[in-house]
Inverse folding.
């Protein structure tokens, strides 16, 4: 085991800094050094002054560390890493995680007297300075403490480099050059400063801490930093269990990282003839030579036996590279959620004032980002997505995405997509980095038309204006429907939109319009409202365009049917608001963030707002939306029917995109499926599991919501408001006696539908209304049946009594009745005494009247 405490010699070395740092400089300017300093243009007394004026305290900032995004397994409490992000691939370890073999290899090759000196090997440093000035050598003769100082200076310089600058790579190279320069006056000044810092650090830090700091900060080639990341990358091992040969190899690499790295089979450098060296072909000859040097030093120092040396020396260098892949592509089926969470770090000012600062925090800050993802729901949701909507189904940009939110706090508990996450641009439509469930800020998506799912906001505005869900309307397709748009009026031909399956519409109430998603019915509702007010409801419920613009910025009659591009995430949150009794909770993906030092970093808080819609309106909207999920409703195919009460809504836009949204009182799920580019018809393309592409939304939503119900459950929705479910009665105009056309206009003008019944007996002309049903009062929008006269009704003349037979015959014939006289009417002078039917009786033309005389 390496020593952990200073020896007497080490204590004396440390006293060097206590006696006077200028003495160190003095030693450098005596004897043979002075002439050499003069060669560099530095007078001896100037060197002493320079040394005394150099700062003694080095601010050892935390090194750049990778940040990691986690999902917590609720069953075990285990934090499962989804992805890491880094500029320098570094995994800090504790001293006890370092194997003695590794420590011995580092000490034997770099600083065998580390535990006995006071931070500076004065004799070797003086000789190195002289050799460097004379250009007879370029060695640095630095102790591990000095190398730690050098690496800290490089790190601090790199942390200040502007990652957005075009010269970023050159700036990083300059950081290394400036910190390692050992030539001329600048080289001497750097060495003096390095020594001064090293002596001071030795007084304030333990040897073990210095050694650990060095091993955690040192570069091991490329973007690999720190001994643990190096062990994992080069040998798929941990720093705690490296073999002697592996430990010696890493100890050799750190001496000249980019020359001795062993992850480039084609070689790390070429000679003047262009021949590659240190390659797989030559057995990584340069690294092998350095490794064997380390083994020799370990044997000489008694750290390994002859047999161990022989075995390690005889072994070839055999890399077992574990690629240091970073980014959300490593998160597999959770990649799109990962990208959404990452976008929060990159865009929310709580993580830095500028995007560059936020990006650097993510790639350098060593954050531990704990998310809201619930693997109990995510797993089944991702499986349903894979089973029903594999990527690139028909080479026509068919995409699908699902998201589930906790209605009580906005936590995103699942997010799935049918494509494979990749930030590499490719022609294969199965790969993309766009997060379909998100918006431009959270996943670079501009959203999609949501179709009839947008009818929610017409329903809410309808209820907020005091209308009832049992109010009856003429929901037939209308060619000249007057729509209110921000106080003005526009005429809409709803026949251009129509209804699913060519349905011409019908008169019914809002409950039925909602359950059947009748377009013409919702246009009839919107005609009694204002489009701008409907869009204001959507805005209030957290809905924006996918680009971030307000939905109230653009207003048109067809907004009723969801032509605006909106993210599935925003729609899920809106329906969650209804399920949550009118309280809106903004979607959130991050539960907690820890800094590299374990302290908590501020995060966007839970953002819930009560009263976005009233509890009464929310309960009544939920009452209507439950009909969608019931048998016979348009969303029934997405209902798992597991006894969890659900609300929901379907949506379709121009046969190119579909939605299925459903929610319990605890979890809302939105699934979108359609074209993310182009407009190819999805209603004619078979899916891979039977059915058509437009039907894929149902099994995905069903499986996702079932998983959420199993974990989170759901209670019954509150009872709807009585006033908002009342039956509305309206006075029915009396139209009897009007022509059929006049009656139709009067009734439709009052908001009723008209049905012309079969003619009824009447004396009026056949185009005159002889009867109507109902009359008096009826539900608004109800159908009134009008019956025209058949023109056949007559009345037995009341003045026929007392007339002669001839006069009676003429009277009856005049109204279309036949006469049959009794024999009592034969004598001359007889008068009519009675008839059957009696005078004044209503009957029809052609009826025979029996006449009796006296």
């Amino acid at each position: 085991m390496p020593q952990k405490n200073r020896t007497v010699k080490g204590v004396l070395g440390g006293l060097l800094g206590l006696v006077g740092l200028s003495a160190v400089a003095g030693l450098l300017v005596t004897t043979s050094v002075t002439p050499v300093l003069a060669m560099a243009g530095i007078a001896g007394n100037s060197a002493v002054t320079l040394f005394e004026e150099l700062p003694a305290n080095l601010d050892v900032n935390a090194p750049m560390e990778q940040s990691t995004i986690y999902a917590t397994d609720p069953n075990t409490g285990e934090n499962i890493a989804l992805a890491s992000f880094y500029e320098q691939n570094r995994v800090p370890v504790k001293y006890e995680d370092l194997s003695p073999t590794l420590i011995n290899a580092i000490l034997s090759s770099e600083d065998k007297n580390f535990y006995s000196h006071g931070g500076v090997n004065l004799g070797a440093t003086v000789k190195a300075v002289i050799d460097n000035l004379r250009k007879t050598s370029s060695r640095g003769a630095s102790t591990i403490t000095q190398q730690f100082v050098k690496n800290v200076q490089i790190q601090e310089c790199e942390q200040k480099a502007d990652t957005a600058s075009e010269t970023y790579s050159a700036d990083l190279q300059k950081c290394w050059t400036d910190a390692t320069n050992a030539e001329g006056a600048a080289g001497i000044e750097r060495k003096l400063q390095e020594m001064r810092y090293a002596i001071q650090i030795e007084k304030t830090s333990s040897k073990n801490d210095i050694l650990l700091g060095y091993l955690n900060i040192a570069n091991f080639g490329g973007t690999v930093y720190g001994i643990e990341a190096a062990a994992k990358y080069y040998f798929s091992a941990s720093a705690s269990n490296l073999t002697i040969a592996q430990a010696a190899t890493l100890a050799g690499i750190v001496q000249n990282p980019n020359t001795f790295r062993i992850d480039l089979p084609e070689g790390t450098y070429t000679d003047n003839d262009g021949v590659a060296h240190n390659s797989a072909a030559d057995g990584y000859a340069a690294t092998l030579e350095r490794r064997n040097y380390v083994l020799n030093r370990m044997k000489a120092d008694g750290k390994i036996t002859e047999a161990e040396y022989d075995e390690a020396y005889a072994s070839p260098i055999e890399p077992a590279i574990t690629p240091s892949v970073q980014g959300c592509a490593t998160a597999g089926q959770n990649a799109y959620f990962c990208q959404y969470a990452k976008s929060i770090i990159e865009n929310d000012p709580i993580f830095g004032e500028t995007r560059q600062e936020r990006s650097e925090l993510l790639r350098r800050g060593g954050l531990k980002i704990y998310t809201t993802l619930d693997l109990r729901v995510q797993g089944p949701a991702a499986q349903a997505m894979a089973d029903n909507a594999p990527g690139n189904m028909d080479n026509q940009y068919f995409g699908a995405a699902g998201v589930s939110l906790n209605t009580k706090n906005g936590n995103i508990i699942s997010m799935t997509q049918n494509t494979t996450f990749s930030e590499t641009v490719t022609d294969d439509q199965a790969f993309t980095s766009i997060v379909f469930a998100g918006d431009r800020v959270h996943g670079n998506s501009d959203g999609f038309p949501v179709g009839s799912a947008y009818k929610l906001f017409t329903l809410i505005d309808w209820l907020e204006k005091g209308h009832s869900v049992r109010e009856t309307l003429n929901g037939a397709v209308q060619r000249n429907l007057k729509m209110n748009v921000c106080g003005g009026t526009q005429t809409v031909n709803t026949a251009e939109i129509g209804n699913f399956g060519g349905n011409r519409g019908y008169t019914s109430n809002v409950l039925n319009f909602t359950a059947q998603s009748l377009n013409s019915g919702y246009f009839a509702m919107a005609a009694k409202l204002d489009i701008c007010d409907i869009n204001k409801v959507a805005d209030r419920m957290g809905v924006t365009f996918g680009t971030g613009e307000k939905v109230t910025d653009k207003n048109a009659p067809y907004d009723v049917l969801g032509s605006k591009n909106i993210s599935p995430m925003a729609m899920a949150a809106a329906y969650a608001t209804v399920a949550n009794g009118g309280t809106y909770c903004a979607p959130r993906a991050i539960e907690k963030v820890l800094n590299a030092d374990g302290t908590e970093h501020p995060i966007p808080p839970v953002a819930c707002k009560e009263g976005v819609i009233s509890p009464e309106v929310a309960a009544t909207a939920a009452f209507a939306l439950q009909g969608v999920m019931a048998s016979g409703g348009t969303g029934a195919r997405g209902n798992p029917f597991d006894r969890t009460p659900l609300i929901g809504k379907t949506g379709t836009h121009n046969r190119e995109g579909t939605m299925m949204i459903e929610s319990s009182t605890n979890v809302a799920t939105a699934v979108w499926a359609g074209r993310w580019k182009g407009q190819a018809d999805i209603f004619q393309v078979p899916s891979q599991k039977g059915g058509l592409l437009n039907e894929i939304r149902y099994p995905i939503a069903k499986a996702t919501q079932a998983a959420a119900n199993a974990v989170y459950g759901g209670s019954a929705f509150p009872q709807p408001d009585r006033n908002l479910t009342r039956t509305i009665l309206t006075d029915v105009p009396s139209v009897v006696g009007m022509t059929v056309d006049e009656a139709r206009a009067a009734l439709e003008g009052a908001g009723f539908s008209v049905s012309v019944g079969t003619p009824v007996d009447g004396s009026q002309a056949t185009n005159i209304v002889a009867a109507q049903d109902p009359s008096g009062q009826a539900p608004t929008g109800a159908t009134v049946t009008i019956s025209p006269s058949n023109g056949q009704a007559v009345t037995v003349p009341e003045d026929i009594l007392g007339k002669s037979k001839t006069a009676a015959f003429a009277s009856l014939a005049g109204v279309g009745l036949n006469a049959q006289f009794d024999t009592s009417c034969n004598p001359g002078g007889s008068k009519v005494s009675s008839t059957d039917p009696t005078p004044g009786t209503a009957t029809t033309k052609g009826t025979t009247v029996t006449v009796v005389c006296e």
Observations:
- The longest strand covers residues 398-406.
- The chain has 27 helices and 34 strands.
